[in-house]
Amino acid sequence: MLYGIYYAYWEKEWGGDFIPYIRKVKKLGFDILEVACHNFSDTENEYLYQLKEAADAEGIILTGGYGNDSTHNISGADPMIVKAAFDKFEKTFQKMNIAGIKLLGGSLYSYWPVDYSLPLNKKEDMKRGIENVRILADMAAEYEITLGMEVLNRFEGYMLNTCEEAVDFVSKIDRPNVKVMLDTFHMNIEEDSFGDAIRMAGKYLGHLHLGEANRRPPFRGGRIPWDEIGEALHDIEYTGTVVMEPFVRMGGTVGKDIRMWHDLSDNCPDEKLDQDVAESVRFLREIWE
Ligand SMILES: [Mn+2]
């Protein structure tokens, strides 16, 4: 398995300069840096070439996270919003290709953060989702990009809340580059069993986000059953990517979208944040390998 971390642990906005994090995460013991692709469609090619060069120089793999906003929704009822989503994805894939990013995960099949004041029709949205993600998959395949359909808890999404729903969705899409993506934070709310959910995903599992129940980095003695999760990953012979996605600080668009209304970091300096995730990845490698 390859171990990573999402850059937003240290940041308050989606986007910004990812290059300094490449060396940082390498030093902290990671194989992967996950970046936000939210603004890729407007990012200069020159920067993306530099990003790729920096990652290659350190031997760090880049993966991408993305949550479309409500005006870019490929399952939406409004054809203009669907078209806007496809157009943005096409540009995003082109830019990801320049940066050498081969995996994009998130609520790609819908939008995020969900707005429950807007109308929703799960049955119709799922039907459009299956048809449109299939088209999206073929667009992504041009760039050898794999798409992770992230299962989200009920407070953040309504289309895929459980692994069972995601396996059904992905098997109906029936494209080799469309995978189930799980996240222990969301699983903690919706799944009866972490191990059974991972075994149910089986060959469809394409990416896994890691975090404690309150989105701290995984730690020994935490509330998520890391041993059980490791056993299940072994059972399905998973050799893919696992990326921790911790959020401990308030503020900015990240703090607002993640609903950080209290500080989990004790206002510690960046050095302490670094130590915590270096320890976290050491712990996971120790119990999972
Ligand atoms: Mn996640």
Separation of the first and last Cα atoms: 9 Å
Mean pLDDT, nearest integer? 97
Total count of domains: 1
The number of E-state strands comes to: 8
Give me the CATH architecture, please: Alpha-Beta Barrel
- Which strand order do you get reading across the main beta sheet? 1-2-3-4-5-6-7-8
What share of residues is helical?
A: 40-55%
pLDDT < 50 runs, ≥5 residues: none
Our count of helices gives: 10
Structure description:
By secondary structure, the protein is an alpha/beta fold. The chain has one domain: Divalent-metal-dependent TIM barrel enzymes (TIM Barrel). 44% of the residues lie in helices and 14% in strands. The protein is built from 10 helices and 8 strands. It has an 8-stranded parallel barrel with strand order 1-2-3-4-5-6-7-8, surrounded by 6 helices. Helix 5 packs parallel to helix 7. The longest helix has 21 residues. The protein is globular and about 45 Å long. It starts with a strand and ends with a helix. The mean pLDDT is 97. The site of manganese (II) ion (MN) has 4 residues, from loops. Manganese (II) ion binds next to loops. This is Sugar phosphate isomerase/epimerase. It holds the Pfam family AP_endonuc_2. Keywords: Isomerase. GO terms for molecular function: isomerase activity.
